[in-house]
Amino acid sequence: MKTILITGASSGIGKTTAELFQSKGWNVVATMRNPGAGADLAQHESTLVTRLDVTDSDSTLDAVQEAVNRFGSIDVLLNNAGYGAYGPLEAFSMDRIERQFDTNVIGLMSVTKAVLPHMRAAKFGIIVNISSIGGKMTFPLGSLYHGSKFAVEGISEALHFELEPLGIKVKIVEPGMINTDFGGRSFDFEMGTELPDYQPAIEGMQKAMGHYAANSSSPDVVSNVIWSAVSDGSSKLRYRAGDDANVLLDARKKMDDDTFIGEMKKNMGW
Ligand SMILES: NC(=O)c1ccc[n+]([C@@H]2O[C@H](COP(=O)([O-])OP(=O)(O)OC[C@H]3O[C@@H](n4cnc5c(N)ncnc54)[C@H](OP(=O)(O)O)[C@@H]3O)[C@@H](O)[C@H]2O)c1
Questions:
Q1: CATH number at residue 188
Q2: Does the predicted model carry a pTM greater than 0.90?
Q3: Does pLDDT of 213 surpass 90?
Q4: 56, 160, 196, 240: most buried by Cβ count inside 10 Å?
Q5: Residue range 142-167: average pLDDT?
């Protein structure tokens, strides 16, 4: 029996992935900031629901130790916890900027560091990092979120080289728009109303995002891609999730920067 540890398993992609791995007979360590949100996952006998806030390294070390004590190993780490901060850079306080990077980037590295000694001792492991199409291309007003996800891409690719000789694979999953709490309670949107210079851009972006969100996929689509990444036996690095991810990333690959920026401005009505 293999064991997966998931961060941010209280909702969305983390939760549906916990359910999928439960259904495949895996041990699941469903970690979350508030373990009360995992009561239904905890009903499964091979599941441990425990507290892990990726910005709190004590909670990370405790959760990893609890997982190893209970199941003996962590075969797969799913770094999923994250949220999106969008809006003009100028309008964000430094605290909010730091929170975005502490969660999406430093948090991911902290959990990875805590799990690695166990995977290294076992000479086996798979680390799946949830990036985004927004780790390969940007939307306007997304300097914080895209900065964090571009970082996840770079960290993951470099770790792929570093860890493969030790028997540990690193994989990146790039979802398109997914229908979860991401656009609601996990969206730190800053209008910057006190900065009128940015308002036309924000209005254009809000209208255009409605169009992109209309093509969103269900979180199961991502969970199934995560399952493939874990079980296909390959060393493949990147996996896309969602039809829109394929369309948008293929289009971005074919365009030079000027063309991409021109197309994006057209979509935003600028
Ligand atoms: N939905 C999309 O369109 C989309 C597209 C591309 C990539 N993604 C990525 O997918 C991942 C999951 O998002 P989702 O769409 O499933 O949204 P979601 O349902 O809002 O889930 C976000 C999860 O992250 C957790 N989280 C936030 N900060 C945390 C922290 N400091 N420590 C531990 N957990 C924390 C949340 O926990 P709480 O319940 O405690 O808030 C929640 O479980 C994120 O990395 C996101 O960037 C999403």
A1: 3.40.50.720
A2: yes
A3: no
A4: 240
A5: 98
Establish whether residue 8 lines the binding site of ligand 1, counting it when its CB lies within 6 angstroms of any ligand atom: yes
**Measuring from atom 42 of ligand 1, which residue has the nearest CA?**
8
Does residue 209 lie within any of the structural domains?
A: no
Total number of domains in the chain = 1
Taking only the tens place, the pLDDT of each residue in 252-262 is 999 999 999 99
Domain assignment present for residue 266? The answer is no
Which one-letter amino acid corresponds to residue 180? T
- The answer to whether the Cα torsion of 174, 180, 185, 188 is positive or negative is positive
Query: Domain range for residue 184?
Result: 3-198+217-252
Mapping DSSP to helix (H, G, I), strand (E, B) and coil, where does residue 140 land?
coil
Q: Is 96 within a domain?
A: yes
Asked whether the predicted pLDDT for residue 215 surpasses 90, the reply is no
Using left for φ > 0, alpha for ψ between -120 and 50, and beta otherwise, residue 87 falls in left
Mean per-residue pLDDT, 9-18: 98
**Ligand 1: distance of its center to the CA of 258 in Å?**
32
